[in-house]
Specification:
CATH topology of the largest domain in chain A: Aspartate Aminotransferase, domain 2
Structural class of chain A: alpha/beta
Number of domains of chain A: 2
Number of helices of chain B: 14
Strand content of chain B: 25-35%
Strand order of the largest sheet of chain B: 12-11-10-13-15-17-18-16-14
CATH topology of the largest domain in chain B: Rossmann fold
Number of domains of chain B: 2
CATH class of the largest domain in chain B: Alpha Beta
Strand order of the largest sheet of chain A: 3-9-8-7-6-4-5
Structural class of chain B: alpha/beta
Number of strands of chain B: 18
Distance between the termini of chain B: 45 Å
CATH superfamily of the largest domain in chain A: Type I PLP-dependent aspartate aminotransferase-like (Major domain)
Largest sheet of chain B: 9 strands, mixed
Helix content of chain B: 25-40%
CATH class of the largest domain in chain A: Alpha Beta
Radius of gyration of chain B: 22 Å
Oligomer: heterodimer
CATH architecture of the largest domain in chain A: 3-Layer(aba) Sandwich
Distance between the termini of chain A: 61 Å
Number of helices of chain A: 14
Shape of chain A: globular
Order of helices and strands of chain A: HEEHHEHEHEHEHEHEEHHHHEHEEEH
Chain lengths: 394, 381
């Protein structure tokens, strides 16, 4: 049969465009700053994960520049062969100390951590028990396994225990996986209860704390510290790309976990290690978190004020407990319209629509930033009020 | 669907038996009227249509085919919907089941996209007898009994579903047509029968393909995954007798594996051979004596999500006790589960119902090696 080898590229792309499902990339002409220039327009940035504005912190920039000068632009190899520098080892040591665990390991990205490690933790004859709202990278990690999978209702510990009771009789290993902070609603997994249930049934616990690292817990030490259970979660996974302001995935836990993980995770073994500038910036981010508590404090002050004012204006902000504040508006078309009009008015916030969330729960997702001033927040709230009234949301 | 074609029919006498304690209106409409029953279907239909219109931002572009008078045109006119064509006029003021059937024959000729009706299980059955699984149907609940899976939960939910359907955001899936045998019921016997598998409208199943992008997956793909799961189970338990329950999902699985099973009955397979077809309770018990280890595969049936006690009475308490509650595998497509968020059990045996109630939740298989926790509800606990 004579077939055209690449026609599908064009056809499938055009189909995405016709359904309006393609990504229209917004281009930043500045850094990811609280006031960014996006597609030529200055906007208040409420879409970035740069919660603490550390990507612009002078110390991170300085350390990155110096490391590049001293050690070069790239690392030259994968970690396993010749790409492990003293700098990488230092980051891991400091990270473990910061998180109160025995050891830590840096992956190239958060996605690489989940898709590299999860398939090694469970296999045939095992079961992975997962919250229904877990992030796509967990789902992909789980898809790469040969395990059975059971899904429990979002944060429902009664359902989780029922699955554990059932699984206890049938499986070799049990792995409970959850997001720490859920990225659509900004609520937090009851990690203390999950660890308790894990202990009760001999199940391993794994948390993806991407949105909690640098945000929740004292000094932003993450979900373990938030619940006072440092070192008790079997796998604390996170990222340097959000509040830490750099890039890279991480896991923290026992020394055996780390030894196991770097010997078995294919994403870790088969990708080049971070350039020295990245590792140095990661290290500086940990330094800043340990020595400058003002950033985390400012993030939470901004969050509390913004949520309170949105609620008093009459907006529904859902169940959020973190700097991710959804502004629930109802129908998908309304969320899209609000997002577009906010952009025109100088506020950049992403609409989240069906089927990412229920049909009647479409929303604007806002992510707070410690670099925003009181004036910035009042400006933003003013725009929300004006457009919320115009669109009959409030 | 830029311009949906809808066939709209109201069974004006639906539900009249209920208020006067007749458990149905089939064949007893005169008696119901004499007992003072008032029509309820026209009002329900009107409410639903009004709510549907309130969702339409632009003028409704749907083409409406309907019947004269109380069978549809009155309600449409009252709410101000323009009728495309009246395709049937009943001869008598007191309409009967053949009037619904005649209207459906005409709807088929007009090639409507959906039959939108107002009535109960009896009406659904009449429609199904004519259209089979050719055209999807959606019912406004107005009957005495509504066990079939083609009804919206409330008039309001039905209006929303219709709106989503004409906007092309819902898809077509299996829906069971169930009905109580009314003659037997009036004699004190409870027997909900499964009459057939119609097409209803359901929420599509989505999978995430990009960060914020989802694609809907066809029912067939999901059922193929369920089939793989069951094949694995059969390979794991080669000493088990496998009983395939009634309904579209289980029948699809069995046929995909290669067994010539019945859609509405219970069939048995042992070591890859069909050893029993359309079995009654005794037939199943006889097989269970020969093959004491067994697994039964069931799927939620009808609007309320029953896995036992509706439409499959052959799976009697005695049968389930012999097999063991833990050997019941429940399968369902996520679309089906979206419409039946609770799994119900009503075996007629209190002790057996209790052993299900004590589980509180059941793991429903929704994909290959993938299960979801769903609450169990029983009538007595």
């Amino acid at each position: 049969m004579k077939r055209h080898p690449t026609t599908f590229l064009k056809e499938e792309y055009e189909e995405l465009v016709s359904k309006d499902f393609d990504w229209k990339l917004r281009v930043l002409e500045t850094g990811s700053t609280p006031h960014s220039v996006v597609d030529g327009k200055e906007v208040i940035m409420l879409c970035s994960n740069n919660y603490l504005n550390l990507s612009n912190h002078p110390r991170l920039i300085q350390e990155a520049m110096e490391a590049a000068k001293k050690y070069g632009a790239g690392s030259g190899s994968v970690r396993a062969i010749a790409g492990t520098m003293a700098l990488h080892m230092e980051v891991e040591k400091r990270l473990a100390r910061f998180k109160g665990t025995e050891a830590a390991l840096i992956y190239q990205t958060g996605f690489a951590a989940n898709t590299g490690l999860i398939p090694q933790l469970a296999g045939k004859g095992d079961v992975i028990i997962s919250d229904e709202l877990n992030h796509g990278s967990i789902i992909d990690g789980v898809r790469l396994t040969k395990t059975d999978r059971a899904i429990y209702k979002h944060r429902d510990m009664g359902e989780l225990e029922k699955v554990l009771q059932d699984a206890d009789k049938k499986y070799r290993r049990i792995l409970i996986i959850t997001d720490g902070v859920f990225s659509m609603d900004g609520d937090i997994a009851p990690m203390d209860e999950i660890v308790h249930l894990g202990n009760k049934y001999g199940a391993m616990t794994y948390v993806d704390d991407a949105h909690g690292e640098g945000v929740i817990g004292p000094d932003g030490r993450g979900i373990g510290a938030h619940f006072g259970i440092e070192g008790k979660i079997d796998v604390e996974m996170g990222t340097f790309s959000k509040a830490y302001g750099v890039v890279g995935g991480l896991i923290a836990g026992s020394q055996y976990l780390i030894n196991f993980a770097y010997n078995k995770s294919r994403t870790w073994l088969l990708s080049g290690s971070h350039p020295p500038a990245v590792a140095a910036a990661q290290l500086a981010a940990i330094d800043v978190l340990e020595t400058e508590p003002k950033h985390v404090k400012r993030l939470w002050d901004n969050t509390t004020y913004f949520k309170k004012e949105l609620t008093s204006l009459g907006f529904d902000t859902g169940e959020s407990e973190t700097p991710i504040t959804p502004v629930i508006v109802g129908e998908s078309s309304k969320a899209k319209e609000l997002s577009n009009r906010l952009f025109d008015e100088g506020v950049f916030a992403l609409p989240i629509v069906f089927p990412m969330v229920a049909r009647d729960k479409a929303r604007i997702r806002t992510m707070m930033n410690a670099g925003l001033t009181n004036e910035d927040l009042d400006f933003t709230l003013d725009k929300f009020e004006k457009l919320g009234k115009a669109l009959k949301i409030i | 669907m830029t311009q949906a074609k809808i066939g709209f029919v109201v069974n004006p006498i639906a539900g009249m038996g209920g208020k006067v304690g007749l458990k149905g209106t089939d064949g007893v409409v005169q008696q119901a009227i004499e007992l003072g029953a008032q029509p309820i279907a026209p009002q329900r239909a009107e409410e639903t249509l009004r709510e549907f219109l309130s969702y339409c931002k632009t003028p409704d572009k749907t083409s409406w085919f309907t019947c004269a008078g109380a069978m549809g045109s009155n309600e449409l006119k009252k709410v101000g919907i323009r009728i495309t064509e009246i395709i049937y006029t009943p001869k008598d003021k007191n309409t009967l089941s053949h009037d619904t059937k005649n209207a459906c024959t005409k709807f088929l000729e007009k090639q409507v996209d959906l039959i939108f009706f107002c009535g109960g299980d009896g009406t659904a059955r009449d429609i199904f007898e004519i259209i089979g699984s050719k055209t999807p149907m959606l019912g406004i609940p107005a009957g005495v009994k509504m066990h079939s899976g083609v009804f919206g939960i409330t008039t309001s939910a039905t209006a929303k579903m219709l709106h989503e359907f004409v906007n092309n955001t819902l898809t077509i899936g299996d829906a069971e047509i169930m009905d109580l045998d009314e003659d037997r019921y009036r004699r004190g016997e409870w027997n909900i029968r499964l009459f057939g598998i119609a097409k209803g409208i359901v929420e599509p199943t989505y999978i995430q393909v990009g960060k914020t992008m989802f694609e809907s997956v066809s029912d067939e793909e999901i059922k193929d995954e369920l089939t793989e799961h069951i094949v694995d189970e059969m390979e794991k338990h080669t000493d088990h007798l496998f009983l395939f329950g009634s309904g579209g999902t289980v029948d699809y699985i069995a046929k995909k594996i290669g067994f010539d099973t019945t859609l509405l009955g219970i069939d048995a397979v042992y070591q890859n051979k069909l050893v029993g077809k359309d079995l009654n309770e005794n037939g199943i018990l006889k097989l269970l004596k020969k093959y004491p280890q067994a697994t039964v595969i069931v799927s939620p049936i009808g609007a309320q999500g029953f896995i036992l006690g509706r439409g499959n009475l052959q799976l009697s308490p005695k049968v389930i006790k012999t097999i063991g509650v833990d050997n019941v595998i429940v399968v369902a497509t996520p679309s089906k589960l979206a419409g039946t968020p609770v799994i119900r059990v009503d075996t007629g045996d209190k002790n057996l119902d209790r052993s299900f109630a004590e589980k509180e939740f059941i793991l429903v298989v929704v994909g290959y090696r993938l299960s979801k926790v769903v609450k169990i509800q029983t009538n007595n606990f």
